Structure formats: C-alpha cells, structure tokens
Amino acid sequence: MGLGLSLKTLYQVARVSVPTYVDGLTGRASREATDQRLREFARRVVDNARIQLDVRGVDRVPTDRAYVYMSNHQSHIDIPVLYATMPSPTVRMVAKKELFRVPVFGRAMRAGEMILVDRSSREQAIESLRRAGEQIDDGISVWIAPEGTRSRDGEIGPLKKGGFHLALETGTPIVPVAISGTRHVLPPSGKRMAHDIPVRVIFGAPIPVEGRDQQALMDEVSRFFRDHV
Q1: Which domains, and CATH codes, for the chain?
Q2: 90-117 tens-digit pLDDT
Q3: Other CB atoms within 10 A of residue 123 CB
Q4: Which residues are CB-contacts of 128 (< 8 A; sequence separation ≥ 6)?
Q5: pLDDT (tens digit, 9 = 90+) per residue, 137-157?
Q6: Does the global pTM surpass 0.85?
Q7: Span 22-40, average pLDDT
Q8: Could you tell me which of 73, 85, 224, 200 has the C-alpha nearest to residue 149?
Q9: Are 203 and 197 in contact (CB under 8 A)?
Q10: CA–CA distance, 130 with 218 (Å, rounded to integer)
C-alpha cells in the first residue's frame, strides 16, 4: 500500500508537470493555470493519502497582498500540504537547484515561476533573491523553508538568512507556518508513503519587518516553529 501510494503521488507530480512543461515550451504558460494545477495537485495528494488535516490560523492572514511564507521542513509532503492550505491565491516556492535538474519536472518548475536557489554560489543566491523580489512586487507570495533541509527527527534546525534578507529588502511581512506530522507520511529518507496520518498546519499572523533587526526576526520565527511543532 505504501509503495502504491508513493507511485500515485509520482503520477500526480507528472500530471501537474507535463502540461506546465508543454506550456513553457509553447509560450502559453499562464500564472492562473499554474495556480489551478498546483491546488488540484495538492488536493489529490492529500486526498489519496487520506491525510487528516488540521489547519489553524488561516483567518489571521489577509489575502490582499504578497507575503514571505516561512515554514519548518519535515518532508517532501510539506509541498502538497502547504499548497492545499495556504490562504494566498498565488504562491511560488524557493527550491534547491537539484530539483531543477529533474527531467520535465525541472523545466515545469521554471515555467511555473518557481525560484532556484544555489547556496554554493553567492552570485546565484543574489540572483535568486532578485527574482523573488520581482515576484513579490508583482503580487506573488514566496514560500521558503529557512532550515534549508528536511529535519530528520522533527526538531527545528538553525535558520538560514536568505529569506529574512528578502523580506527586509522588500518590506514584505513574514507569515510563519508550523507543520507537524508530514514526516510520518513520508520520512526524509523514505520512499513509501503512509496513509491516514494526522497532519497539523498552523499559520501565524503576518510579522511586519519594517525597522526590525534580522536576527530578531529569525529568533521570532524559530520560536514560532518550536512553540507549535
């Protein structure tokens, strides 16, 4: 059952990737179409796995502007869970460069306006922040997992500075999001998914960044994760 569920999820990834890839090749890529595909993909994955979602705090986040969403990171399943629950209609994620090398999927991510980050290259990291800033200016919210990698034991790791720098440079409020339970659906090193797992997602109120110190913001977001995971 676990392997079958994993294969179903891979099928859903292909189902959203292939048409987005084709749209990118033909110049017909549409932000609205990408939004719809992402939401449908997320709902199908959540429904197929019979994830028992407990979502709190959505009403704290007005949808009249862009945000920098920051979540802790437990599993690849964080992606469909968050796309199924985030209140903002248009959200693009910052993802590591390795995902952009996957055939078709990587091209689909580019066509879908996802943001590549290469932490081994300062120039590339600066370019990633510039692109993310342009998207925010265009009304698109950006989602980043500031831990930078999935937690192996559920504990919150040190947060990286890039997303906080982006929020400060653009004056964009940060929405902290605490996720718990997804590592039991698909562990960081696992390939078999489990079903009927309770997953909780808690959205914090947007944190204004004007006049704030970067380290103080990092401490506040880290504290939110630790208090709610």
Answers
A1: 2-228 (3.40.1130.10)
A2: 999 998 888 787 777 788 888 899 998 8
A3: 8
A4: 94, 115, 116, 117, 118, 162
A5: 999 999 999 998 888 888 899
A6: yes
A7: 89
A8: 73
A9: no
A10: 20
